[in-house]
Amino acid sequence: MAIGVLIALGFFSTILALFNPRPILTLAPGEPQLGVRARLSWRFKGSAGRLRRLQIILRGCEHASYQRGTDSVTDERTFYAVLLADQVQAMSMHDGTVEFAIPHDLMYSLELSHNAIRWRLEVRGEVPFWPDVDDRFDIVVRPHPVT
Length: 147
Fold this sequence. Notes:
This protein is mainly β. It has one domain (2-139): Sandwich (Immunoglobulin-like). The protein has helices at residues 2-17, 90-93, and strands at residues 22-28, 37-45, 53-68, 71-87, 95-101, 110-111, 115-126, 133-139.
């Protein structure tokens, strides 16, 4: 019975989350390069006034896939995370812009057969008495330009 209640609560929470404000991100350039400044702009579709806090995080992760017995396993390890925006004032949550640069000595996006370097933007918004906003957007990071 307890499992049924948990499943029902999870389903109800998922339905409520569909009515959350949706972030729309614009990244210029669309594929930033290591060590080069980029600009991230955001706005929300829906009632962003319900948000009490907004955080935008840039995260770089290393993914490694391998066999453990007969199972395929993928591990993820964060090697870089930076808080690009942390807003608590309603006027600055609905839309905004932030400039940033990914350090030039980090690894750019890479996909190999068993390993990968992936970058993403994570948008987290606290909504009182409602499921929180928790969206992730994969991005491609290019190598540092050759000088």
